[in-house]
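quick one: adenosine-3'-5'-diphosphate bound model?
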Amino acid sequence: RTNHHWQQSSATPEQTPPRSQTLCTSREAYERAFPLYKQPVEVGCFSLDSQRRFFSDSRQMRYYVEPDRSPNFDLSDGYRERYVKRDENVKEKLDHILRWIVANRSKLKSKLSPDASCPLDFDFVTWRGHLTKLLTTPYETREGWLLAVTRFNGTLYISEVETEAARRERENRPERNQQMMYWGYKFEQYMCADKTYSEPDPSGVVNTNEAFCTVVQTRLTDHKLLFSGEVDCRDKDPDAPPPPACYVELKTSAEICTPKQRSNFHRFKLLKWWAQSFLPGVPRVVAGFRDHDGIVVSVETFQISKISQLIKNEYNCWKPTVCMNFCCDILSFVKREATEDNPSVVYLFSWEPHRDVTYSVHRDSQYSFLPDWYIKEMTC
Ligand code: A3P
Ligand code: MG
Ligand code: MG
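yep, here:
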């Protein structure tokens, strides 16, 4: 024990374990203090019209309309006759966000000088939905994910790739599930008006090409983020706080009749709802609880800031801090591993439940997702 002559200095490989090429996803590893997450700030918005055409404005914004005390919405109404469904075979990747960036680059401060438009002063550019998947990963037991990452001008772009399992599920979706997907959009139609002064129009067509998206910037510890997410509607009160605080997320869920159902709602649904809205700073979710036939039997508002209180009594429940710390650590992992700055190189990060996150590197492959027009536009 006194014979220390062989001991090496702390800088040697023997004492510094090699950095792992994988990332652990178990909950226990992320139970620490809540990380710094700056209040998200809306930097812009865009709209996708009934034909999925992009507009750098808020033309698709809708307004929340408080429903009757006992609503009687039939969510199946119009499913066969008044439903235009977005083509899920078209993979849009980050294209809409990139179009927004190109159209609004003068608004975005650059790293070099306030006038220069590149490089962008963000570490990550992605969809809110991709970040939601990262937040819920430590609790996900069913569906894995694939995320393509490209470093370009110092910014890491993250774009989801559909897994084989997800594609199979989508292509074999039972009729019942397809109908239930419609229910969510139909609920939006019952709850939203096109103008501040108008009423919802349930006799209209439900077209899932249409979307209003917010673009927010924020910071998670040392990660500067720019992401976009679809927003269902906003408070129409002119005295409502500025976006994103005036936004309202709409959801449907099966009515809760038993303690077991309540527990499942807290443990699984509220995790997804919380993660989706917490990220962009949307303060409330309005939920329509429906019966087996798709009739809404009650409507209830959930404040995102109160959800952690609501679930505290559930045994072995999810924790916001685990979600946020995991997200922070995977972004650090991506930053550390995706080092080559090249728009045609993709680092494909891959995860399956009960496994670590791993990745592979692909050059000029099917996975490349930054379009030539974007690269040209953003090359100094
Ligand atoms: P619900 O939210 O009521 O389930 P969002 O709530 O994110 O605004 O999405 C609106 C609707 O789109 C959802 O309504 C649901 O019907 C459908 N939807 C969203 N994500 C989905 C997914 N991953 N799989 C199936 N349907 C989805
Ligand atoms: Mg939505
Ligand atoms: Mg919604």
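The pocket of magnesium ion (ligand 3) is lined by residues 232, 249-251 (CB under 6 Å).
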